[in-house]
Design a protein that fits this description.
- It is a single chain.
- The chain has about 100 residues and is mainly α.
- It has one domain: Helix Hairpins.
- The protein is about 75% helix and about 0% strand.
- The chain has three helices and no strands.
- The longest helix is centred in the C-terminal third of the chain and has 27 residues.
- This is NADH-ubiquinone oxidoreductase chain 4L.
- It is found in: Mitochondrion inner membrane; Mitochondrion membrane.
- It catalyses: a ubiquinone + NADH + 5 H(+)(in) = a ubiquinol + NAD(+) + 4 H(+)(out).
């Protein structure tokens, strides 16, 4: 495993661990998701450059478009949660309460 591949893998795993173990605020969860998507985008871009296959050249752009949609949806949920509950703490959210 090259150092570049190791750094992308480590960035993904660290973001995943941050999402799994540090779930206090919705904003921190969204930042961890963005870190995961950024590491996936960089790894996929590097993979398509190394393989030099033209069929997979649109895959990083498609992942980036989905990442932008995920970020906008997450920020909309963050704003809606902050307006209704007054905070973005995940402990204050209850699925059974509408």
């Amino acid at each position: 495993m090259t150092p570049v591949h190791f750094s992308f893998s480590a960035a993904f795993v660290l973001s995943l661990m941050g999402l799994a173990f540090h779930r206090t605020h919705l904003l921190s969860a969204l930042l961890c998701l963005e870190g995961m998507m950024l590491s996936l985008f960089m790894a996929l871009s590097l993979w398509t450059l190394q393989t030099e296959v033209t069929n997979f050249s649109a895959a990083p752009l498609l992942l980036l478009a989905f990442s932008a949609c995920e970020a906008s949806t997450g920020l909309a949920l963050l704003v809606a949660t902050a307006r209704t509950h007054g905070t973005d703490r995940l402990q204050s959210l209850n699925l059974l309460q509408c």
